[in-house]
Design brief:
Blueprint (H helix, E strand, L loop, with lengths): L5 H5 L9 H9 L3 E4 L11 H8 L15 H13 L9 E4 L1 H13 L5 E6 L4 H9 L2 E6 L11 H5 L6 E7 L11 H14 L2 E5 L25 E6 L12 E4 L3 H13 L5 H10 L4 H22 L6 E2 L7 E5 L5 H10 L6 E4 L1 E2 L13 E5 L4 H19 L2
Parallel strand pairs: 1-11, 3-4, 3-5, 5-6, 6-7
Antiparallel strand pairs: 2-8, 7-8, 9-10, 10-13, 12-13
Length: 397
């Protein structure tokens, strides 16, 4: 019998999606499931993007340029400059989601067996992208009691070896919601310059900050041009997760030329989605003002409700729309599955993402869950009520 590759066997399951079969079972029983497990916003996609697809006058659905539509890249460059980011058209390659941009970044900067340092907990698919690229993740642990602030630079430096090629951050962070300060970003910038590494910043949640804090991009740092790689996406900004359009951005000419070879190998990003994404750039500021206000209120509601549960520890997020909560249970994987398989409160239950899958270090985060506050406030309140009752029932088993 033919054998599956070792790389394939090592590919991790998604901690976000692996519980879906159990959620399906719960729904077939007639239970309502509140989905706190996945960052799928319920915010309406901008009308201007949807209308652009409906009104597209296309006779032949052709390939686009491998770097994406020039018109889109031009408008995207203008968008970035309006937001204080000195990004030119030549600095941008459009990708099939931020996921492909990360794969291009890893493929362009790292060889088999090279290492990438990532503060954990981190977006679970970084593990998958690294495995697919033959790259070893070297985690540096951030702690819930600091709100998942950047670990000390000394902790990074002691992990750097001859195989280290890059440091990867998500800012603001998924799954923590932490927003790195300008001082923290500058510390990383000095470190990568000192050791001649790349600094890859996943900035797809850039617009989602709530307390007057300013997002500081790696593209804003003078002298870091050859080291900085920015990853971006339309998924969260415009609530267009299904569009699968992102981009890789860098001023490093050799890096972008290499990434272009990967872009050419997959031919081109999808056409209709680029049309929608280009049109989305016309979204009025009022849309974002309303969205940010809504998410801030949801965050405050969720954190207030979670803090009512005895034994729960939660770090208040500064950005994105996730938080990590430590629960008074023995194992979050078992608890999350039990919630769907065996528990309901008046025909309702909740689905959370066990946080262990957001760590690379074994045995860490076993009692933590990631919660996405992408539901309306009344649903968040009800979800936490169910969670509170469920914790009591689970611990009584």
């Amino acid at each position: 019998m033919p054998k599956i590759s070792n790389k394939g066997k090592q590919m991790p399951e998604s901690p976000i999606r692996k519980l879906v079969p159990y959620a399906d079972i719960a729904k077939k029983k007639g239970n309502k499931v509140y989905h706190l497990n996945i960052g799928q916003p319920d915010i309406k996609t901008p009308d201007v993007a949807l209308k652009a697809i409906k009104n597209a006058d296309i006779k032949v659905l052709e390939y686009s340029h491998s770097a994406g539509f020039e018109s889109y890249r031009t408008k995207l460059s203008d968008y970035y400059k309006t937001h204080g980011l000195p990004i030119n058209v030549a600095d941008i390659i459009i990708t099939t989601g931020g996921s492909e941009a990360l794969l291009f970044a890893m493929g362009s900067t790292m060889d088999q067996g090279d290492e990438i340092i990532i503060p954990e907990p981190f977006y679970a698919n970084y593990n998958g992208f690294s495995t697919a690229s033959g790259v070893t993740v070297v985690p540096v642990i951030s702690a819930i009691d600091t709100g998942f602030a950047l670990p000390p630079i000394a902790a990074f430096e002691q992990l750097i070896t001859s195989k280290t090629k890059a440091i990867l951050i998500c800012n603001p962070g998924n799954p923590t919601g932490y927003l790195y300060s300008k001082e923290e970003i500058m510390q990383l910038a000095e470190l990568v310059k000192k050791h001649d590494l790349f600094l890859i910043a996943d900035e797809v949640y850039r617009e989602f900050t709530y307390d007057g804090d300013i997002h500081y991009s790696v593209m804003n740092i003078p002298g870091l041009e050859q080291h900085a790689i920015m990853i971006d996406s339309v998924s969260k900004r415009y609530s267009m997760c299904g569009a699968r359009i992102g981009c890789i951005v860098s001023k490093n000419i050799e890096l972008m030329a290499t990434a272009m070879k990967y872009a050419q190998a997959r031919l081109s990003p999808p056409t209709f989605e680029q049309i929608a994404s280009e049109a989305a750039l016309e979204t009025p500021q009022s849309y974002f003002d309303e969205v940010i206000t809504e998410y801030r209120d949801r965050r405050d509601t969720l954190i207030a409700e979670l803090n009512k549960i005895e034994g729960v520890i939660v770090a208040k997020p500064k950005g994105a729309f996730y938080c990590i909560a430590q629960l008074p249970i023995d194992n979050a994987d078992r608890f999350a599955q039990w919630l769907l398989e065996s528990y309901d409160l008046n025909g309702e239950t909740v689905m959370v993402a066990p946080a262990a899958g957001f760590y690379s270090t074994p045995g860490i985060g076993l009692t933590e869950v990631r919660i996405a506050y992408v539901l309306k406030k009344t649903d968040l309140i009800r979800s936490v009520q169910i969670l509170k009752a469920a914790i009591t029932a689970y611990n009584a088993l």
